[in-house]
Amino acid sequence: MTSHLNRRLMLAGAAAAVPALAYAQDKPQFGTPQSVISNPPRDFGPNAPPPASPDPDIIKLDPSFNGLLIGQETIRRVATGYHFLEGPAWSSIGLYAIFSDVKNDTLYRYLWETGQVSILRRPSFSTNGNAFDFQGRQLSTQDYFRRVVRWEVDGAMTILADSFDGKPLNSPNDLAPHKDGSVWFSDPQFGGNLAEGHPDEGDGPTNPGGLRDPRIGHSGVGLIGGMHQTLPMNIYRVDPSGKIAVAVPFETGLGPNGLCFSPDYTKLFAIRGGRIFVGDIVGTKVANMRLFTDCMVDGVRCGPDGMRADKAGNIWASSAAPLGYCGVTVWNPSGKIIGRIRLPEGCANLCFGGPKRDHLFMTATQSLYMLRVNVQGASPG
């Protein structure tokens, strides 16, 4: 009798527990996915667990940003261990991305087929900005030589610009090819230091007292003579014939940096003084240059360095702001911010690549990151 009652009690208890178990299964414990600002922070390493989807570091600030994303895609770190990355560009012919480690004097290549990174040129003479023109030729700015060069299809190198009005350029930084065959580039003074290029020889505004000696420790010593940064920090246009003209004159406090064109190539976007401006292209010059965005987000200045336009006219700009705001900001054609991509490092530049040109490559200090998106880049590379 006792065992019979015990069995009955056990069965009754089990039956009562079934709804409780079902209830527990219907109410799972939700977690918070790790991000670049969580504690502990998200791990981007090769042995890290799969990231959460949707990615917690892709911030949607406007419904229109949804159409530019692919829900299950997440940010990936594809290479790391560098010093200061810059100048990503995509070769549609070669199916590879190039990027510069400016302070380590090396130009690298990321192979699409294998995901491997190899050295393309060392020394790179402090190559900074890169692009590919409409004929598939590589364009680069070289901080050390303070010039803009083009690599021809037979391997020869052509110097597109190294002086203006009989004076050496300051330090060409970023560049963009126009579909009319011209090349536009910015000429700030960033490359006039030991880490990124060729200091002025002797005393001067960018080398007070002549304390920094450009002759020490560089394989290019003797290839160029004494140089001083004497030109205003203009934006220039190199005509297909080779003629160089000032497209955007320097204004105090508005040193130029990254450049890109609108998808129809009628407007130039230029980063000047930590903000993004846009102007109308009229012949060989830019008119009606006006503020596009001050790059302020939640009261934080998301200082841009480089940028690209997508085919819809949105501007994707790098951000070197503090953690939580460093990465990429995305602005619609009216200059309204619609989204952000958070990275664990300050981002200097970006480009669209991949066979369909729908992958965003981001050079962020020591690492190269990639995100597949639902829009294509407007420029060829």
Q: What features would you describe in this structure?
A:
- The chain is mainly β and 381 residues long.
- It has a single domain, classed as 6 Propeller (Neuraminidase), CATH 2.120.10.30.
- The chain is 7% helix and 37% strand.
- It contains 1 helix and 29 strands.
- The chain has a 5-stranded antiparallel sheet, with no helix packed on it. The protein has a 4-stranded antiparallel sheet with strand order 2-29-28-27, with no helix packed on it. A 4-stranded antiparallel sheet has the order 3-4-5-6, with no helix packed on it.
- A hairpin with a 7-residue loop joins β24 (315-319) and β25 (327-331).
- The longest helix has 25 residues, at 2-26.
- It is globular.
